[in-house]
Structure formats: structure tokens, C-alpha cells
Design goal:
Blueprint (H helix, E strand, L loop, with lengths): L8 H4 L19 H4 L5 H37 L9 H24 L1 H4 L14 H7 L2 H10 L2 H4 L18 H11 L6 E5 L6 E5 L56 E6 L8 E4 L5 E7 L5 E2 L2 E4 L6 E4 L3 E2 L2 E7 L5 E6 L7 E6 L1
Helix pairs in contact: 4-9, 7-9
The chain binds heme C.
Length: 353
């Protein structure tokens, strides 16, 4: 029987030739197991172990990425149950504060001379009143007033307040947004600003009390601010947050008040013609009050200590041009302020002695 050469596997390998013995090269020096054709049990186990640990590594990697994504998500939108903890909420909040503090500066530069540094009113009506801030001074109304000017408020074509927003006024859309943001700012929002009274940096906070609820007895705010003064009022409405300094001017000579006679006060161009008056203490006296401002309501009220003190007596509010004589009851000796209830910037000092 002829053996077919090469049928036996060993036969197919070339016969070892000692002279051609392979030179051992370092890079081929892998262990015999890897050069083996086929798997040993040991090798198979090793492969299983290796793929097990690479699956573990992949799992760790995926978990890491997942945790990162989750963490970043909460970092962006905030942690559940923690208000304003997200970066986006903080960024939004920062933007609000920036608008409000810009609006505050614009207000102090353009509006405070008429509406008061604290919005307590003056030539222009009170703005810091909680009843007004509740609904009357809403963003849309404020925008209309600033676009059209004071005539929007009561339809008075000769209103003292000009238009503020372009094209009729000097301020642009964004600046008006900022003023509105400031006027509506809640009192728990604070920021660094300049206190107009001292000129020093100070912590400024908004006027509006977000928790304010309308007292059941409160009268609704009329559309035209002058209507609030239509009836003779006995006590001026308290404006929260209102503060100011007494009239600094002492230039005008005190008008003499011989006992039993009459003090004359005239209001013109939203100012009193006197800043100091003297009356006899403990004696009733009269004030002859002339309102020369056509269509603008004024009165004289006497306040404890200074024009910003509590009212001790309030004269009837009259629309100009008219003259009224007030009978004022006796005042104990002391210093008082006299003020126009409608225009708190009209004020002076009254001394009873
Ligand atoms: C020259 C004085 C003056 C200046 C400056 C001024 N105002 Fe006025 N403002 C008035 C007067 C006066 C009224 C009342 C309008 C009327 O009936 O004629 C008024 C009315 C308003 C009202 C409506 C109030 C209400 O109770 O309905 C708002 C709001 C207002 N002003 C905001 C501003 C803002 C904001 C600024 C600054 C950009 C400003 N004002 C600057 C005088 C002024």
C-alpha cells in the first residue's frame, strides 16, 4: 500500500533542518499558548476573565457618563425641591437684578425729582403706595404712561409729565423695561446702589410687598390719581416707605401772625410762596389759602414735628384757581410742618409760640 505523502499532518511540515534552526527574535517571544492553534482550557478561561473585566470597565464608563449627565442636568435646571438652585434660575435672577438696578438709576436720574426718591410723591403722584402697586401700577399701565406721558393718566393735555419712551420721549424700549422692573421690584429683592439721600453706596430694595393683600376697608385706587383727593379728606393716606427730610429752605421771611388774624399762603407752580410761618400757640387762627395752579388740587395740612410727621389737621383740598379760608384749631406750642397733601414736596415749617 502506497502511502500518500502528506496525509499525516506531521508529514506536511518540512523536515527540521538543524542548519536552518530559527533564530529566536524577541518580538515573537510570546508564550507558546498564544501561538497555539486552538484553545486550551486555561486560555479560554483567561479570555472569559478578560472580557468580563472589559465589560466591567465599560459599565463603569457608561455609569460615569450617565451620572455626569444627570448631575449636569440638575446643575442646569435646579435640584428638585430646592428653589432657584439651578444655574439657569440663577442666571435669570441675575438678569432681573441687573434690570432692576439699572431701572433704579434711571428712576433716580429722571423721575425722583417729581415722584420722590422713595416714590413718596411730590409734584407727581405717589408711586410707592401698596394699593397702587397691587394693580393700578401694572406693567402695561406703566408702559402706556411712559409712552404717552402724564396726559394718559387723567386726560390732562397740560400734564406736567412729559412722555418718556421713544419716539415721543428720550428713553428707549429697554430703558423703559428697566424702569418698569424697578417700579415693580418686590421688597425682598436687594442690590447695591447709591442712596440718593447720602450719596453713599447702600443696599437698595424694591417698594412692592409681594404679600400685600388689599384690606377689606380699602377704597379702590381711582384711574385718575386726582380723584383720590376729590372729597375733603380728614387724614392723608399713609404711604408706606415714605420718608424724606423737612423743607431745608429757610430763606423766606416768616409771615407774621398777629393773634386773631389770618396767615396768607399761596400755591403756584406746585410750590408754596412761604416756607416758614409763625402762629400764636394755644389760639385758633385762620389760613387764607390761594391755589393759583389751574386744574391742580392743593391744600394745606399741618403735621406733627415736620412735614413728614403725622397729620394734626388737614385743610380741604381745592382745585385751582380759588381762595379758601381755613379755620385752624389752636395748636400747642411747638414746631410743625405744613404740607400739601396732594404734593408732599410742597412744604414748610410752622412754629406755634
Ligand atoms: C416734571 C415732573 C415729573 C417727572 C420728571 C416725572 N413725572 Fe411721572 N407724573 C408727573 C405728574 C404731574 C403726574 C400726574 C399726571 C397728570 O395727571 O397730569 C405723573 C404721573 C405718573 C404716573 C401715573 C401715576 C398714577 O398714580 O397713575 C406714573 C406711573 C409716573 N408718573 C411715572 C414716572 C416715571 C417712571 C418717571 C421717570 C421716567 C416720571 N414719572 C417722571 C410728574 C412727573
Amino acid at each position: 500500500m502506497t502511502e500518500i505523502p502528506g496525509t499525516e499532518p506531521e508529514e506536511r511540515l518540512p523536515a527540521p533542518r538543524p542548519d536552518l534552526a530559527p533564530v529566536r527574535v524577541e518580538r515573537l517571544a510570546s508564550p507558546p499558548s498564544t501561538r497555539r492553534f486552538g484553545l486550551t482550557g486555561e486560555r479560554a478561561a483567561q479570555i472569559v476573565r478578560q472580557s468580563g473585566s472589559s465589560r466591567w470597565a465599560a459599565f463603569l464608563g457608561v455609569s460615569f457618563v450617565a451620572l455626569f449627565v444627570l448631575g449636569y442636568y440638575f446643575y442646569e435646571v435646579g435640584f428638585p425641591g430646592v428653589a432657584d438652585s439651578g444655574r439657569m434660575a440663577k442666571a435669570q435672577q441675575d438678569q432681573v437684578v441687573t434690570d432692576v438696578s439699572r431701572g433704579y438709576k434711571l428712576y433716580q436720574a429722571n423721575c425722583s425729582r417729581c415722584h420722590g426718591e422713595q416714590g413718596q410723591g411730590g409734584i407727581g403722584p405717589v408711586l410707592n403706595d401698596q394699593m397702587k402697586l397691587l394693580a393700578h401700577l401694572n406693567p402695561q399701565y406703566l408702559r402706556n404712561v411712559l409712552q404717552v406721558g402724564g396726559r394718559y393718566v387723567c386726560g390732562d393735555a397740560n400734564s406736567l409729565m412729559p412722555a418718556w419712551e421713544q419716539p415721543l420721549g428720550p428713553l428707549n424700549y429697554q430703558e423703559v423695561n428697566e424702569i418698569i422692573a424697578w417700579l415693580r421690584a418686590p421688597n425682598d429683592l436687594t442690590f447695591e446702589g447709591i442712596d440718593p439721600a447720602t450719596g453713599e453706596p447702600a443696599r437698595i430694595s424694591g417698594w412692592r410687598d409681594p404679600n400685600f393683600v388689599q384690606p377689606p376697608t380699602a377704597t379702590p385706587v381711582p384711574n385718575c390719581w386726582k380723584d383720590a383727593f376729590a372729597q375733603p379728606s380728614t387724614a392723608p393716606s399713609a404711604s408706606p416707605g415714605a420718608s424724606g427730610s423737612p423743607a431745608p429752605s429757610g430763606s423766606a421771611a416768616p409771615s407774621e401772625a398777629p393773634s386773631g388774624t389770618v396767615i396768607k399762603i399761596t400755591a403756584q407752580n406746585i410750590a408754596f410762596d412761604v416756607s416758614e410761618i409763625e402762629v400764636p400757640a394755644g389760639q385758633p387762627f385762620q389760613i387764607e389759602f390761594t391755589n393759583n395752579d389751574a386744574g391742580i388740587p392743593h391744600n394745606v395740612a399741618i403735621h406733627e414735628g415736620s412735614p413728614t410727621g403725622t397729620a394734626v389737621w388737614t385743610g380741604e383740598i381745592v382745585n385751582g384757581v380759588t381762595t379758601i379760608t381755613y379755620d385752624v384749631p389752636a395748636l400747642p406750642a411747638g414746631t410743625y410742618g405744613f404740607v400739601c397733601t396732594v404734593h408732599p414736596n410742597m412744604m414748610g415749617t410752622l412754629t406755634a409760640k
